[in-house]
Write a structure and sequence with these properties.
It contains nine helices and no strands. By secondary structure, the chain is mainly α. The protein has two domains: 58 residues, no CATH class; 87 residues, Serine Threonine Protein Phosphatase 5, Tetratricopeptide repeat (Alpha Horseshoe). Helix 1 runs antiparallel to helix 2, helix 2 runs antiparallel to helix 3 and helix 5 packs antiparallel against helix 6.
Length: 148
């Protein structure tokens, strides 16, 4: 059920119906104990909230959604290109950008750069390490940082 709600949320996100998407992602979180699914839902909730704020302020969009899609499909090099383009237009390397870049680097077996980006993400949001520990790709790097 949680996966179905997550997929419905993704469809609403693609249609730019962010309020309904948030509702679906929250319902997905409430109906599962799968930490990886919870993490993905929370990422999309943050993206939806960013989009809703951008609509209010008419700021240029920061589209992490496509980078997440590429990462989820194993296209790490393409995801890094998208993230680089985002950085060129936004110049704000927040924890979302850094965390996604760490996943993309780890997906390409570049542990040194993945660790560097994960540590930078942690500097912005120290609790992100606990999300990384639950991420299949970042887990070994996160455990190394934690000294385990």
């Amino acid at each position: 059920m949680a996966l179905i709600l997550y997929e419905e949320g993704l469809n609403l996100f693609a249609k730019k119906d962010y309020k309904k998407a948030i509702d679906k992602f929250n319902k997905s979180i409430e109906s599962t104990n799968d930490l990886q699914l919870i993490s993905k839902c929370k990422s999309y909730i943050a993206l939806c909230n960013e989009r809703l704020q951008e609509k209010k302020s008419n700021k240029k969009k920061v589209d992490y959604g496509y980078a997440v899609f590429l990462i989820n499909n194993g296209q790490f090099g393409e995801a890094k290109k998208v993230l680089d383009e985002i950085f060129k237009t936004n110049k704000n390397r927040n924890e979302t950008y850094l965390y996604l870049y760490a996943i993309a680097e780890a997906g390409e077996n570049n542990e040194i750069n993945a660790e560097k980006h994960l540590k930078k993400a942690m500097a912005n949001n120290p609790s992100i390490i606990y999300i990384a520990v639950k991420d299949q790709i970042l887990k070994p790097i996160a455990l190394k940082i934690l000294g385990k």
